[in-house]
Amino acid sequence: MTAAVIAAFQFPDSARVDQRVPKKLLLENGAPTASAKRLISDAIEDIQWLAALKPNTIGVPEYRDTQREYLEVAVLAVSLRGATKPASLSRLAELVHRAVPYPVLLLLAEKRAEGPTLTISLAHKRWAHNEAGKIVLDGDLVSVSLFQAADGTPGDDVEAAPDIKRDFMQSLAIARQPKASLHALYEGWIVCVQALHAARRTGIYQTAATPEQTAARRQALIDCQRLEGEISRLRAEAAKEKQLARQVGLNLKLKRIQSELAAAQQQL
Question: Parallel, antiparallel, or unpaired for β 104-112 and 73-80?
Fold first, then answer.
């Protein structure tokens, strides 16, 4: 799976690096605490620097404004020793993103009992507001595990929605991303990840065409995730409730939340 996804990006030979990165560098630069060092040491098997996307390797201009500068996008592939808990996987991704001074297109490969899983992770970066010269993450990580349903069921995209898989993979090609700047290029892949999350709910893969559509979809996805969590909680509470009046109240609330979810899904 990892090789197929890497090939889908269609990085030009001029940008390929294909070098192993010693884990020691990540421990030195991306592990601020003892628990972070343990996580890196225990979970990561191998780190590969796949490509360096720079103006002289892909012909896309660098980007500068008052908040950030994008001189390069680093493409890294991290192989994990085995299945990783979602919280640990997210923490690992965050540590890698923080350790590299450039925006990172990160591929995390896991070996699970039901089959290998690959997670694509991205995160914009900016200058720190209170410390000159320091670079920090700008907002939350944007990530997606391939290929799963919205509820995390492995293999759903492959077996039940082959069109979604095909369209997503085709959309990853570097030639199909915006070329105005490295920032726009990187944002293009974030748009692709958001489109896959939306497709798992709508059944149709379609990237947002404008920044306004991108922002609206981002908020709709946040709302969907929040409402789906609330629905799961209410269903579990209703299943345990013994009093009839309380059950009726929970079911009415559940229907209201489901209506809100349907409205949020319409914005995808």
Answer: parallel
The region, left, alpha or beta by phi > 0 then psi within -120 to 50, assigned to residue 203 is left
| Sheet hosting strand 44-53, strand order edge to edge | 16-20, 44-53, 73-80, 104-112, 115-122, 142-146
Q: Do residues 90 and 177 share a domain?
A: yes
User: Is it the case that residue 148 has pLDDT exceeding 80?
Assistant: no
Q: Quick one: DSSP state of residue 102?
A: S
Domain residue limits at 243: 209-268
Q: What is the pLDDT of residue 159?
A: 45
Task: Please indicate, yes or no, whether residues 224 and 189 belong to a single structural domain of this protein.
Answer: no
Tokens 């899983």 belong to residue: 117
DSSP 39-77: HHHHHEEEEEEEEEE-HHHH----EE-SS-EES-EEEEE
Nearest to 186 by CA among 78, 59, 53: 53
Write down which residue in 207, 239, 255 finishes a domain: 207
Examine the domain organization and report whether 152 and 65 are in the same domain.
Answer: yes
Beta-carbon neighbour count of residue 253 at 10 Å?
15
Q: Are 181 and 62 in contact (CB under 8 A)?
A: yes
* Domain end residue (candidates: 183, 207, 231): 207
- Structurally, the chain folds into a number of domains equal to 2
> Binning pLDDT at 50, 70 and 90, where does residue 246 land?
confident
On whether both 8 and 91 belong to a single domain, the answer is: yes
| Distant-in-sequence, close-in-space partners of 8: CB < 8 Å, separation ≥ 6 | 169, 170, 172, 173
